[in-house]
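I have been asked to look over a protein record a colleague put together. Alongside the sequence sits a line of tokens, each denoting a local backbone shape. I have pasted the whole thing underneath without changing anything:
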Amino acid sequence: MLRATRILRAGALSGGEIIDRVVLDHGDRHRRRTAMRGVGGTAFLLDLAEPAMLDDGDALVLEDGRLVWVEAAPERLLEIQAPDEHALRRLIWHIGNRHIPAEIGPDAVWIGYDHVLADMVRGLGGTAAEVERPFRPEGGAYSGGHGHGHGSGHAHNHAHSHD
């Protein structure tokens, strides 16, 4: 079976023949080794040296040099907003206290859909609207800032600082 052994990060893509794409939700974008099939039918084995977070716009490099584009799949989420910055911070604290993955934007927070948490947010004065979009949650304190919430390290060569 054809293997993909490297990741080209979105910012480092230059040239290369993109032959297919994989559409993966947040959970499926954290991988090391698994069989995959692109939407165009290309079957391959993702075979990385260690687990890595695949980001929207990355490409997997096949053994023959061709590329498979990585696309973040839309997911059912709650978009949480608040009437002011203090109220949003308070909601973020309550969400974080439940140890669930969250993507934090300047004016909203996104979490996986959960009707109980939607009710909690509304009870605390916020809004919780169901949306469908790619999910890019914050990493845990020990994950290097990437979208997976556990302490295992991963290889990367991003075009941003981890300071």
User: Anything to note?
Assistant: Confidence is low (pLDDT under 50) at residues 145-163. The longest strand covers residues 43-53.
